Amino acid sequence: MSSPTVRHISDTAQWAAVYRARETERKDPLFHDPFARRLAGERGEQIANVTPFHEKHSWSWVTRTYLFDRIISEQVAHGADMVVNLAAGLDARPYRMKLPPSLKWIEVDLPEILAYKEELLKAEKPACKLERVQADLSNAEIRRSLLGRLAGEASKALVITEGLLIYLRSEQVSALTEDLNGFPAFNRWVLDIVSPGLLKMLQKNTHQQFGPDVPPLQFAPEEGPNFFARHGWKPLEVHSVLKTAAGLKRVPFFMRLLALLPDNPTHSGSRPWGGTCLLGSE
Q1: Tens digit of pLDDT for each residue in 245-279?
Q2: Which residue range(s) make up the domain with 95?
Q3: What total of structural domains would you count in the chain?
Q4: Which of 44, 47, 81, 274 fits a 20 to 30 Å CA distance from 211?
Q5: pTM for this structure?
Q6: Does some domain include residue 1?
Q7: Which has more pLDDT, 150 or 205?
Q8: DSSP letters of the chain?
Q9: Is residue 181 part of a domain?
């Protein structure tokens, strides 16, 4: 492969799809994504094969997917009438999950990644009402206009930001958080977050593989999930990826022992910690 390994942010979507494909191909998969191998393509495998740190910790990618799946299923069962997937990438949940036909599922991402997915899945039928929106979420005016339209079409919406926030600056996350909080229809939000300690580890083992057009990994608030409380979002569920993976026996034995240590996501500091959180608007 020519350098750099990851040339565009859209490459990370194919990279993530590889781990979903490999999990699906196990004899004891935590989830089934029959579209992941197709979506990952050769490019996804190429990236995965030259990123040894992430290969070694592929359990974290798989566990994140597992946790998001579980939370989404629960929220839909509890009455969510819309799912808004911001920076949806190559997520195939509308096709692979058991969802009510009446559910509205909105995928938002850059034109090139959505066009790529549209082409590869054009013969497939989603389980619910699926809409794809091509938009640059970094444009505040476009983002707010879109959120306003979607909020008017739902009464109880779940927002998903899987693998997005870590690429944003703190002020960008704050702006998104306040935008979402401005619409009562958006009352649940599921996201992933890392501690400063884990961010430093990821930066050390990832940034050298990023090209100049890929934003750096940068968001890791000192206060963990409580970062969102100051903007009107209360952490309802906080799940450690390591502890969850240990319980699922997706990590080596010595890491299962590490998972037994006390867990405090709001004061992790230099200690590596990553988790998936469900937030509720106050």
Answers
A1: 999 999 988 888 887 777 877 766 678 999 999 99
A2: 60-281
A3: 1
A4: 274
A5: 0.94
A6: no
A7: 150
A8: -PSPSB-STTHHHHHHHHHHHHHHTSSS-SS--TTHHHHHHHHHHHHHHT-HHHHHTHHHHHHHHHHHHHHHHHHHHTT--EEEEET-TT--HHHHS---TT-EEEEEE-HHHHHHHHHHTTT---SSEEEEEE--TT-HHHHHHHHHHHHTT-SSEEEEESS-GGGS-HHHHHHHHHHHHT-TTEEEEEEEEE-HHHHHHHHHHHGGGB-TTSPPP----TTGGGGGGGGTEEEEEEEEHHHHHHHTT-S-HHHHHHTTS---GGG-TTS--EEEEEEEE-
A9: yes
